[in-house]
Amino acid sequence: MFPDKLDLWLQLTRSHGIVRRYFVVNGFDGALTMLGLVTGFYLSGQAALGVVISACLGAAIALGISGLTSAYLSESAERRKALADLEKAMLQDLSESAHAYAAKGIPLLIALVNGAAPLLMSLLIISPLWMAAGGVDLGMDPLLAAIACAFACIFGLGAFLGNVGGTSWLMSGLKTAAIALVTVTLILLIEH
Q: Is residue 101, in this structure, part of any structural domain at all?
Protein backbone atom coordinates (compact mmCIF):
# COMPACT_ATOMS: atom_id res chain seq x y z
CA MET A 1 0.00 0.00 0.00
CA PHE A 2 2.67 2.52 1.00
CA PRO A 3 4.81 2.05 -2.16
CA ASP A 4 1.71 2.79 -4.24
CA LYS A 5 1.07 6.00 -2.28
CA LEU A 6 4.70 6.97 -2.56
CA ASP A 7 4.62 6.45 -6.31
CA LEU A 8 1.44 8.54 -6.53
CA TRP A 9 3.05 11.33 -4.48
CA LEU A 10 6.14 11.28 -6.69
CA GLN A 11 3.93 11.52 -9.78
CA LEU A 12 1.73 14.29 -8.37
CA THR A 13 4.74 16.37 -7.36
CA ARG A 14 6.92 15.33 -10.32
CA SER A 15 9.71 14.62 -7.85
CA HIS A 16 11.47 11.55 -9.33
CA GLY A 17 14.22 13.71 -10.81
CA ILE A 18 14.53 15.80 -7.68
CA VAL A 19 15.12 12.71 -5.55
CA ARG A 20 17.79 11.47 -7.99
CA ARG A 21 19.49 14.87 -8.06
CA TYR A 22 19.55 15.15 -4.28
CA PHE A 23 21.06 11.66 -4.03
CA VAL A 24 23.81 12.43 -6.53
CA VAL A 25 24.57 15.99 -5.40
CA ASN A 26 24.83 15.15 -1.71
CA GLY A 27 26.47 11.79 -2.36
CA PHE A 28 29.09 13.65 -4.37
CA ASP A 29 29.51 16.16 -1.54
CA GLY A 30 30.03 13.37 0.95
CA ALA A 31 32.50 11.52 -1.28
CA LEU A 32 34.57 14.63 -2.06
CA THR A 33 34.57 15.69 1.59
CA MET A 34 35.86 12.28 2.67
CA LEU A 35 38.39 12.28 -0.18
CA GLY A 36 39.66 15.66 1.02
CA LEU A 37 39.83 14.62 4.66
CA VAL A 38 41.54 11.31 4.02
CA THR A 39 43.98 12.87 1.56
CA GLY A 40 44.87 15.56 4.08
CA PHE A 41 45.44 12.99 6.79
CA TYR A 42 47.53 10.85 4.43
CA LEU A 43 49.73 13.79 3.48
CA SER A 44 50.23 14.78 7.12
CA GLY A 45 51.48 11.30 7.91
CA GLN A 46 51.05 11.99 11.59
CA ALA A 47 47.49 11.17 12.59
CA ALA A 48 46.63 7.93 14.35
CA LEU A 49 44.05 5.78 12.61
CA GLY A 50 41.57 6.31 15.46
CA VAL A 51 41.84 10.08 15.07
CA VAL A 52 41.26 9.82 11.30
CA ILE A 53 38.22 7.60 11.80
CA SER A 54 36.76 9.92 14.44
CA ALA A 55 37.25 13.02 12.29
CA CYS A 56 35.79 11.37 9.20
CA LEU A 57 32.87 9.93 11.13
CA GLY A 58 32.15 13.33 12.67
CA ALA A 59 32.15 14.94 9.23
CA ALA A 60 29.96 12.15 7.82
CA ILE A 61 27.37 12.58 10.56
CA ALA A 62 27.40 16.36 10.15
CA LEU A 63 26.92 16.02 6.38
CA GLY A 64 24.03 13.62 6.93
CA ILE A 65 22.27 15.83 9.46
CA SER A 66 22.85 18.92 7.34
CA GLY A 67 21.43 17.19 4.28
CA LEU A 68 18.44 15.86 6.19
CA THR A 69 17.45 19.09 7.88
CA SER A 70 18.21 21.55 5.08
CA ALA A 71 16.29 19.52 2.52
CA TYR A 72 13.34 19.00 4.84
CA LEU A 73 13.05 22.67 5.71
CA SER A 74 13.40 23.93 2.15
CA GLU A 75 11.26 21.23 0.51
CA SER A 76 8.50 21.60 3.12
CA ALA A 77 8.29 25.32 2.43
CA GLU A 78 8.25 24.77 -1.34
CA ARG A 79 5.58 22.06 -1.13
CA ARG A 80 3.36 24.16 1.16
CA LYS A 81 3.61 27.03 -1.31
CA ALA A 82 2.81 24.76 -4.27
CA LEU A 83 -0.23 23.36 -2.43
CA ALA A 84 -1.44 26.86 -1.50
CA ASP A 85 -1.04 27.96 -5.13
CA LEU A 86 -3.02 24.93 -6.31
CA GLU A 87 -5.77 25.59 -3.76
CA LYS A 88 -5.95 29.21 -4.88
CA ALA A 89 -6.17 28.21 -8.55
CA MET A 90 -8.86 25.61 -7.86
CA LEU A 91 -10.70 27.77 -5.29
CA GLN A 92 -10.88 24.73 -3.06
CA ASP A 93 -9.48 23.40 0.22
CA LEU A 94 -7.23 20.43 -0.61
CA SER A 95 -6.13 19.64 2.97
CA GLU A 96 -7.47 16.06 2.80
CA SER A 97 -6.41 15.35 -0.79
CA ALA A 98 -3.58 13.25 -2.20
CA HIS A 99 -1.89 16.55 -3.10
CA ALA A 100 -1.85 17.58 0.58
CA TYR A 101 -0.46 14.22 1.70
CA ALA A 102 2.18 14.43 -1.01
CA ALA A 103 3.07 17.94 0.13
CA LYS A 104 3.76 16.48 3.59
CA GLY A 105 5.35 13.17 2.59
CA ILE A 106 7.63 14.13 -0.29
CA PRO A 107 9.73 16.58 1.77
CA LEU A 108 10.41 13.76 4.23
CA LEU A 109 11.45 11.38 1.43
CA ILE A 110 13.70 14.00 -0.15
CA ALA A 111 15.20 14.84 3.23
CA LEU A 112 15.95 11.18 3.94
CA VAL A 113 17.64 10.76 0.57
CA ASN A 114 19.51 14.04 0.94
CA GLY A 115 20.80 13.07 4.38
CA ALA A 116 21.47 9.40 3.67
CA ALA A 117 23.45 9.95 0.47
CA PRO A 118 26.48 11.74 1.97
CA LEU A 119 26.38 9.63 5.12
CA LEU A 120 26.36 6.33 3.24
CA MET A 121 29.01 7.47 0.75
CA SER A 122 31.20 8.62 3.61
CA LEU A 123 30.78 5.39 5.56
CA LEU A 124 31.60 3.36 2.47
CA ILE A 125 34.74 5.41 1.84
CA ILE A 126 36.02 5.11 5.40
CA SER A 127 35.23 1.39 5.63
CA PRO A 128 38.87 0.45 4.83
CA LEU A 129 39.91 2.47 7.87
CA TRP A 130 37.55 0.50 10.11
CA MET A 131 38.74 -2.74 8.58
CA ALA A 132 42.37 -1.83 9.25
CA ALA A 133 41.54 -0.75 12.80
CA GLY A 134 39.88 -4.14 13.26
CA GLY A 135 43.04 -5.93 12.24
CA VAL A 136 42.21 -6.75 8.63
CA ASP A 137 45.29 -6.70 6.41
CA LEU A 138 44.34 -4.60 3.38
CA GLY A 139 47.66 -5.14 1.64
CA MET A 140 48.11 -1.39 1.41
CA ASP A 141 48.00 1.73 3.55
CA PRO A 142 44.41 2.06 4.85
CA LEU A 143 44.33 5.76 3.94
CA LEU A 144 45.30 4.92 0.35
CA ALA A 145 42.61 2.24 0.33
CA ALA A 146 40.07 4.84 1.49
CA ILE A 147 41.26 7.24 -1.23
CA ALA A 148 40.84 4.48 -3.83
CA CYS A 149 37.37 3.76 -2.43
CA ALA A 150 36.50 7.47 -2.74
CA PHE A 151 37.57 7.48 -6.38
CA ALA A 152 35.46 4.37 -7.02
CA CYS A 153 32.41 5.96 -5.38
CA ILE A 154 32.84 9.19 -7.30
CA PHE A 155 33.28 7.28 -10.56
CA GLY A 156 30.14 5.27 -9.71
CA LEU A 157 28.09 8.43 -9.19
CA GLY A 158 29.26 9.73 -12.55
CA ALA A 159 28.44 6.44 -14.24
CA PHE A 160 24.96 6.57 -12.70
CA LEU A 161 24.48 10.09 -14.08
CA GLY A 162 25.61 8.98 -17.52
CA ASN A 163 23.10 6.15 -17.42
CA VAL A 164 20.28 8.46 -16.28
CA GLY A 165 21.15 11.05 -18.92
CA GLY A 166 21.39 8.51 -21.72
CA THR A 167 25.06 9.25 -22.35
CA SER A 168 28.15 7.11 -21.95
CA TRP A 169 28.36 5.86 -18.37
CA LEU A 170 32.09 5.42 -18.84
CA MET A 171 32.72 8.99 -20.00
CA SER A 172 30.50 10.39 -17.28
CA GLY A 173 32.29 8.31 -14.66
CA LEU A 174 35.65 9.46 -15.98
CA LYS A 175 34.52 13.08 -15.78
CA THR A 176 33.60 12.79 -12.13
CA ALA A 177 36.82 10.88 -11.42
CA ALA A 178 38.69 13.77 -13.07
CA ILE A 179 36.99 16.14 -10.62
CA ALA A 180 38.25 13.95 -7.77
CA LEU A 181 41.74 14.02 -9.29
CA VAL A 182 41.65 17.83 -9.51
CA THR A 183 40.57 17.92 -5.85
CA VAL A 184 43.50 15.75 -4.78
CA THR A 185 45.89 17.77 -6.96
CA LEU A 186 44.77 21.03 -5.34
CA ILE A 187 45.26 19.52 -1.89
CA LEU A 188 48.75 18.37 -2.90
CA LEU A 189 49.62 21.82 -4.21
CA ILE A 190 48.43 23.51 -1.03
CA GLU A 191 50.30 21.02 1.16
CA HIS A 192 53.59 21.63 -0.63
A: yes
In order along its 192 residues, the chain shows pLDDT tens digits of 467 776 776 777 777 788 888 999 999 999 999 999 999 999 998 889 999 999 999 999 999 999 999 988 988 888 678 777 777 777 777 677 676 777 777 888 889 999 999 999 999 999 999 999 999 999 999 999 999 999 999 999 999 999 999 999 999 999 999 999 999 999 999 987
CB within 8 Å of 50: residues ≥ 6 apart: 133
Q: Which helix (H) or strand (E) holds 85?
A: helix 49-90
pTM, entire model? 0.85
CA distance to 18, 31, 135, per residue, from 174 (Å): 24, 15, 33
Give me the number of domains the chain comprises: 1
